[in-house]
Amino acid sequence: MFFRNLTLFRFSAPVATDLDRLEEALPEHRLRPVGPMEMSTRGFISPLGRNEEALVHNVGRNTMVTVGSEDKLLPSAVVNDEIANRVQKIVDEEGRKVSGRERKRMKDDVMNELLPRAFVRTSRMSGYVDKKHGWLVLDTSSRKSAENTLSQVREALGSFPAVPLAPEESPRILMTHWVATGELPAGLVLGDECELRDPATASGAIARCRRQDLDTDEIREHLRTGKQVFQLGLVFDDRISFVLGEDLILRKIKFTDVVLDGQADSPESAAAEADANFALMALEYERLLGKLEEWFKLPRPE
């Protein structure tokens, strides 16, 4: 259940009160099976698992939701091969060229024939809202996937003005300063991963380091030549390790043994275990996100 990547949005205190409608709003937007002639469907599913009905799961002041999807797998190469076969058959049997308009009709016919037989891939993305502090936390490192999930919530509620983070401190400049000087905020230490780029040009030099000590002259030499830190491995309070991007997306999150040792040994049931893990995760992320807000000066919308 622990989220391994975090893409974050913020919302105001007045918006938080409107989130109490989630439980009554989501059932009308439940995921339905993809139809024979559809490429995909999106909708809400239970955060608690396949056989559960509840679309909202509350633990404390945090509310978890999950968006599911069903997508038809119909590779363009398969469609193009079938069209090519049909075109070649016309050339061989009728001795004429196939026009662009005829090719388009042919493609529509191929799609109509193949779509009902295509395999269906299911996927899910979970997220939760921290109504007290105004965070929407989504378990993905893909900005596009996060925006799609946010759109599902907006559609269900009619409106949900959550916005991307707007740091007053440049993450790239601040992370570069941390690595160059070794002066990190209290409780934060360097990990063993970073990505350095020359920001002057889109095709500038890139240096990627993994499983490497970042407090070295080699790394600082890259910085002296003009590179900046675009991604940086960090460890917070000996409890959470992660890679922070200049887009303020958190990737590769892992809880250390200090956190994991605090899990209940013998939960009463699977539901009790899920609740305990969600509560533990949300509490740890609340502390970390509070520090992100402080370090990068992340205003909460008014």
TrEMBL record:
**Keywords, sorted A to Z:** Cytoplasm, DNA recombination
Cell compartments where the protein resides: Cytoplasm, Nucleoid
Keyword Nucleotide-binding set for record: no
The GO molecular function terms of this record are: double-stranded DNA binding
Q: Which residues form the signal peptide?
A: none
Q: Name the InterPro entries for this protein.
A: RdgC
GO process terms (BP): DNA recombination; regulation of DNA recombination
Read off the Pfam families from this record. RdgC
Location (main, coarse):
cytoplasm
GO cellular component terms attached to this protein's record:
bacterial nucleoid; cytoplasm
The record's listing under NCBIfam families reads:
PRK00321.1-5
Q: What does this protein do?
A: May be involved in recombination.
The UniProt family comment states: Belongs to the RdgC family.
Name of the protein in its database record: Recombination-associated protein RdgC
Q: Which organism is it from?
A: Luteibacter rhizovicinus DSM 16549
Gene (name only): rdgC
